[in-house]
């Protein structure tokens, strides 16, 4: 899955299948898409802003790479992800009240292109819906409750209620019809420079919370698939991907597992986000998971 969509489109006289990617998440995914500006097109498969958009990586991020390089079709990506997002601001407040939660992001989709307008002729067969969320939900709350398992269940109940809205009837006017889902679990942010500055006890607490959330995510995805005929659910294990590099960073071309900066060789660009070179690995991992799908 390494052929650029541009290459496919450049084939003279060829008919190129259009696929649609609707993405929800936080700063690990954001590109700054606004649904009231230019929509995805051949000129810019993200619509707006200009590629690679406003990312937290210092360059293209994983969804940038997967949309433009690691695929076998022309992909139009509607990336609703918003920096700082949580699943639901009523459950875990974001760092600012203006942050759009995944609840807000899904509502944006439902209120605009969910009805499959002529501008966005997606179908159940040619579309992918992805969610990478939980980093801020856990990072902003892991220290607040002793019963983390119960609260993680509450968070995932809220997330999958939104996912169900993407599948089922939105109103008396139309059935939404999403069928292909990709979930990305929470990476080991307990190993981020931000958390390494905290006591070991805090790191251990966040790590345990992440492992519980990720374990439940697998169960929720399996149950969701079983309860919805025709639905496909895929999971990319970001936690393992991050740990593989952090355990042996020099083998992957990085200086170490703890430094951060914008120069060559850094894994972290700041205390919480990974660099664009690291995002190449995330993009490749996601592409592997999507191998054999419509993408």
Can you describe what's shown?
There is one protein chain. This protein is α/β, with parallel strands linked by helices and 295 residues long. The protein has one domain: SGNH hydrolase (Rossmann fold, 3-Layer(aba) Sandwich). It is built from nine helices and five strands. Helix 2 links the parallel strand 1 and strand 2. Helix 2 crosses helix 9. The chain starts with a helix and ends in a 5-residue tail after the last helix. GO terms for molecular function: hydrolase activity, acting on ester bonds.
Give a brief description.
The protein is an alpha/beta fold. It is built from nine helices and five strands, in the order H-E-H-E-H-E-H-H-E-H-H-E-H-H.
The largest pleated sheet is described as:
5 strands, parallel
CATH topology: Rossmann fold
Distance between the termini: 8 Å
The radius of gyration over CA amounts to 19 Å
Q: Which band does the percent of strand residues land in?
A: 5-15%
Spatial strand arrangement across the major sheet: 2-1-3-4-5
Domain count: the total is 1
Which whole number gives the mean pLDDT? 92
Oligomer: single chain
SSE sequence, one letter per element: HEHEHEHHEHHEHH
- Outline, from the CA principal axes? globular
CATH-level-2 architecture: 3-Layer(aba) Sandwich
- State the fourth-level CATH superfamily: SGNH hydrolase
CATH class assignment: Alpha Beta
Structural class: alpha/beta
Uncertain ranges: 1-15
Topology, number of strands? 5
Number of helices: 9
Q: Give the % helix.
A: 25-40%
